[in-house]
Design goal:
Layout (H helix, E strand, L loop, with lengths): L1 E4 L5 H13 L3 E6 L4 E6 L2 H6 L8 E5 L19 E3 L2 E3 L5 E5 L6 H14 L3 E3 L17 H14 L3 E4 L6 H7 L2 E4 L7 H7 L6 E4 L6 H13 L5 E5 L17 H8 L4 E3 L1 H5 L2 H14 L3 E5 L17 H17 L5
Parallel strand pairs: 7-8, 7-14, 8-9, 9-10, 10-11, 11-12, 12-13
Antiparallel strand pairs: 1-3, 1-4, 2-3, 5-6
Helix pairs in contact: 3-4, 3-11, 6-7, 10-11
The protein binds phosphoenolpyruvate and manganese (II) ion.
The site of phosphoenolpyruvate has 9 residues, from loops.
């Protein structure tokens, strides 16, 4: 059961609910969001359901939830979560195109890419300063210098940016620069990191672990939500299957499945799923048709020189063409882009 408090509820109202739960031998998981507090009631379902929760001061509603993940479920919140970041929006009938280099390599590379994707119509810039590399000898990112360059690009091109955070000890640093934090596929089940970004008041993109089921992914999102950060965006970025023609297999069906199960926005990463430039455009187009709330695409002004993921980066001109097609698709589907 989840007990949703009214927006005006005071601490004493919350305390009374927690005390009532304790009195019937149950535990309370409190999640203090920006607009309201929600309390997850853990214990004997029958006993919890018998309580007249709505009669208590400050309680808006009590929702029975069957799933192990509660806060991110549709049962808990029937209406879609809509996230606003600066002038950009994710969800609520707005398709959010996010694009930029996989990694920030230099000011010139970042600024050329940011200008191109902005002019083409992207609303959020991507670019990482900390890279999770398979080999410890590969380029690991420019660290804080990369974040500084991203902050300058935000200013110059008037677009918020998303950057990956790899380590719980670096959450504060990345959050002090980035508008949106991203948890990569390798860290989807890093529960210490999830809890840490759950304490930040900035949206978080949570990529699906490449071997994770949808249930495991939603439970990971629950770790963030539970700490009070309710602005979570799910990113389908492909899963590992027996197929070798693509880097990973984009699980396109995950989008409508998630839409049914959860109120959180979900976007697609056609770059890291396919790993091949010629597959990015068709998969990006599929994102809008299947009901995703956006995409995140790698773009590089000279992919052949890229330090990371050059094989999958679109050229700025290819991204521009993709965006023209996306605008047509959005119009056909009655969506804003
Ligand atoms: C990325 O987006 O740059 C990235 C490393 O993605 P993933 O975690 O999905 O591999
Ligand atoms: Mn990458």
């Amino acid at each position: 059961m989840i007990i949703v408090m009214k927006s005006w509820a005071e601490q004493e109202h919350i305390d009374k609910v927690v005390q009532r739960l304790a009195a019937i031998g149950c535990e309370a998981h409190i999640s203090v969001g920006q607009s309201r507090t929600v309390i997850g009631a853990i214990g004997d379902r029958e006993v919890i359901q018998q309580q007249p929760w709505r009669a208590m001061a400050g309680v808006e509603r009590a929702v029975p939830v069957e799933k192990p993940y509660k806060f991110v479920s549709r049962e808990f919140q029937p209406e879609d979560t809509v996230i606003k970041v600066g002038s950009a929006q994710i969800g609520g009938g707005v398709f959010a195109p996010m694009a930029g280099p996989c990694a920030v390599e230099s000011r010139d590379q970042l600024f050329r890419t940011a200008q191109a994707v902005r002019e083409a119509g992207a609303t959020i810039l991507r670019g990482d300063a900390f890279k999770p590399r398979t080999s410890p000898f590969s380029f690991q990112g420019l660290a804080e210098e990369g974040l500084q360059l991203l902050a300058e690009a935000r200013q110059e091109f008037d677009m918020p940016f998303v950057a990956e955070v790899l380590d719980p000890r670096e959450v504060e640093l990345v959050a002090s620069y980035a508008d949106i934090l991203r948890i990569g596929t390798r860290n989807m089940a890093n529960f210490a990191l999830l809890s840490e970004v759950g304490k930040v008041h900035k949206p978080v993109q949570l990529k699906r672990g490449f071997t994770a089921t949808i249930d495991e992914w939603l439970n990971a999102a629950e770790y963030i939500y539970k700490e009070g950060n309710h602005e979570v965006v799910l990113v389908e970025r492909g899963i590992r299957t027996f197929e070798t023609a693509t880097r990973n297999t984009l699980d396109i069906s995950a989008v409508p499945v998630i839409k049914h199960m959860s109120h959180l926005p979900v976007i697609i990463d056609p770059s890291h799923s396919s790993g091949r430039r010629h597959l990015v455009v068709p998969l990006a187009r599929a994102a809008i048709a299947v009901g995703a709330d956006g995409f995140i695409v790698d773009v590089h002004p000279a992919p052949e020189t890229a330090q990371v993921d050059g094989d999958q980066a679109l050229l700025p001109s290819e991204f521009e063409e993709l965006m023209d097609q996306m605008r047509n698709l959005a119009a056909a589907l009655d969506l804003t882009i």
